[in-house]
Amino acid sequence: MIHHAGLEVRAGAADAEVGFWALLGYTQVEPPAPSLARRSRWVQDAGGSQIHLLLVEAPVVPAAGHVAIVAEDYDAAVSALRGAGHEAADRERYWGARRTQVVSPGGHRVEVMAAPPAGR
Fold this sequence. Notes:
The two termini are 13 Å apart. The protein contains three helices and eight strands, in the order βαβαβββαβββ. The longest helix is centred in the first third of the chain and has 10 residues, at 14-23. By secondary structure, the protein is of the alpha/beta class. The mean pLDDT is 95. The protein has helices at 14-23, 34-39, 74-83, and strands at 4-9, 27-29, 40-44, 50-55, 66-70, 89-91, 99-103, 109-113. A hairpin with a 7-residue loop joins strand 6 (89-91) and strand 7. The strands form two sheets. The protein has a four-stranded mixed sheet. It has a four-stranded mixed sheet with strand order 5-8-7-6, covered by helices on one side.
């Protein structure tokens, strides 16, 4: 199990990034130490997986790299993203499950999946 992924964002974009992840069912949680809280914001889904938003002056955003999540309610998640003005593009169904790609306010690609690949 992967516990968390770290994504670099500008401090000024952190609120928008937290709001973006909230659309996908993540809630903000406090980092376990004050030193971490000064340099990051953490969000967590119902299963305990976290995204650590690392506050930096010059974020590095991979051109093709991305985070993929399985949405508990895919239709609601995609609808919430689109309703908030995010361009959510449907992707090819490689394993028969619906997938959508969206870019977070910090510029990170996020793949939203209805289901993971079966047996993988």
